[in-house]
Amino acid sequence: MSSEIYDAQKLLAEIGEMDVGNVSLMEVCGTHTMAIAKSGLRNVLPENIKLLSGPGCPVCVTPPEVIDAILDLSMQKNIIIATYGDMIKVPGSVHGENLAKSRALGARVEVVYSPLDAVRLAEENPSYEVIFLGAGFETTAPGTAVAIGAASEKRLRNFSVFSMLKTVEPALRALIADDGFNVRGFLCPGHVATIIGEEGFRFLAEKFKIPCVIGGFEPHEILMAVYMLLRQIESGEPKVENAYPQAVKSNGNPLAVNMIRKYLTLRRDIWRGLGEIDMSGLGICDEYAEFDAERKFDIKIKPPKETSPCLCGDVICGRIYAHECPLFGKVCTPENPVGPCMVSGEGACAAAYKYGGQ
Ligand code: SF4
Prior knowledge:
By secondary structure, this protein is α/β, with parallel strands linked by helices. The chain has a domain at about 60-165 and about 255-295: 3-Layer(aba) Sandwich (Rossmann fold).
């Protein structure tokens, strides 16, 4: 028996003996969402411990009206949309409309693996405007900032960023303010914490008295984080604990934070499921406005074109489990996704469809 299995059994036994009542814990990271589903962790925890998914999947939190704007942009002449692969099949507000369809209709949509690939694409295609779709949280924001810096140094005139970047803290504050919020502990995202550090989550324990553990991504690391959260709940002493010290430092990565501050700026933003939240998105600083696709192409976000029956907004706020959506696995599947949670490799619906469970 490996020591990890032995430790897992020991932790599960101790969790089973804890006197915590019914407890809902929430992860706010798409990688945690997938890892929890894949490991079957929900099935081995006692029935009184629920694991909910929060707004941690970048593609899933992007609202349909923003996808609509990207689809319109993709059909303009001499445009190359450079994007991470996850975004290709994300539907806008009309079912079936996505970048894959734009591509089939003649748009140039290129999958890139880093923002600097998009800068290279712009250098190689001087007669096209290359628009990089910058999605993600504090984890991916430094890479996007570096790309803007590189384009500026190279004096590229045909590169811009459509920023959908968001920050985690305002979303957590909005969730906590949500009617019916009853999460008693947050499994905080290890990736984001590498940038903003333990300090970035201290508000949870200090202001809201909610336990917070920064966790790694292996099943035994997640189980340990769950155990630590429950221990805090049992003791009634909420704090921020770091169960991922090999990657996360107390103050995060100041160099990466400085890159974000140099090129990006906080702004009001729209979240699927949470609506508009002040200072929750990262737009491009005025000094680098020439690399801001929204300003360059005067993009205005319009209201959604039709009302979607997709309940992703409720899934990513932990209000329902993926399988509770009436479309789950029937009308909505990875082959025919109705919403982004079924498309993304980090989406709660895709995770539940692939691995079963909630
Ligand atoms: Fe949306 Fe499909 Fe998930 Fe339902 S199953 S919430 S339609 S992505």
